[in-house]
Amino acid sequence: MLGEFLLYRPGPHEYGLAKINEGMRQNDAEAFHSSLVFGQEPNLAYYYGTVPELADPQGVQPVVYIDAHDQPLILPVASSIDRFFDLFSRYLEAMAEDPLYVEEHHSSIAFPWDVPELVARDEPLVRMVEANHFDILLKDDEHSRNWLARIRQYVRHGGE
Questions:
Q1: Is the Cβ–Cβ distance between 112 and 95 less than 8 Å?
Q2: What value does the mean pLDDT take over residues 88-112?
Q3: If DSSP codes are grouped into helix, strand and coil, which group holds residue 74?
Q4: Which helix (H) or strand (E) holds 76?
Q5: Number of neighbours of residue 23 by Cβ within 10 angstroms
Q6: What local confidence, expressed as pLDDT, does residue 1 receive?
Q7: Distance of CA 30 to the CA centre of its chain
Q8: For the residues of 15-72, what is the DSSP string, one character each?
Q9: What does each C-alpha distance from 116 to 70, 125, 151, 154 come to in angstroms?
Q10: What are the pLDDT digits (tens) for 118-156?
Q11: Distance separating alpha carbons of residues 92 and 68, to the nearest angstrom
Q12: 66, 75, 79, 86: which is closest to 20 by C-alpha?
């Protein structure tokens, strides 16, 4: 299987966007109070959501990756839903070329962890990161600091 991704359906039904977010907001994790989750990796606690509080003047919201295991972790990954799906499609292209995937049908490339160079191409997102707009969501932990440093590294040095 290449890059499984589950999008929540719009509407108020049991597995719809509204009900799923309502249930997640009952969780004490700030990640779910600050975002509108629209999808996840099936059977895993990895979610993708927009951040309404960070919408630009046109209402475009950035996308964050939420790892809801043990201590929830939030990472900015795209400046908009459009940019997110562009990023995800480029990840799938890279994964399909991964020798491990070609031979064994599972990839050594993890999304978003192993594609910071692709995330760094999203200039509006990089400007938001540089302006510390995501500080309200990010934990001051090693994973978050490392993620932001890797994005900044690709912006400043082209990944060198």
A1: no
A2: 86
A3: strand
A4: strand 73-78
A5: 12
A6: 40
A7: 15
A8: TBHHHHHHHHHTSS-HHHHH-EEEEE-TTSSEEEEE-GGG--TT----EEEEE-SSS-
A9: 23, 12, 5, 7
A10: 999 999 999 999 999 998 888 777 888 899 999 999 888
A11: 23
A12: 66
DSSP three-state, residue 73: strand
Q: Identify the three-state secondary structure at position 122.
A: coil
Tell me which residue of 52, 47, 12 sits closest to 34, measured CA to CA: 52
User: 129: number of CA atoms within 13 Å, CB side?
Assistant: 26
- ∠ CA 133-117-121, nearest 5°, is 60
Instruction: Give the model confidence (pLDDT) of 11-54 as tens digits.
Output: 778 878 888 888 888 876 677 788 999 999 888 889 999 999 99
Closest among 82, 150, 139, 142 to 112, alpha carbons compared: 150
- 34 within 8 A of 53, measured Cβ to Cβ: yes
Contacts of residue 71, Cβ cutoff 8 Å, sequence gap at least 6: 139, 141
pTM here is 0.89
Query: At 141, is the secondary structure helix, strand, or coil?
Result: coil
In the numeric block, which tokens belong to residue 108?
Answer: 């050594």
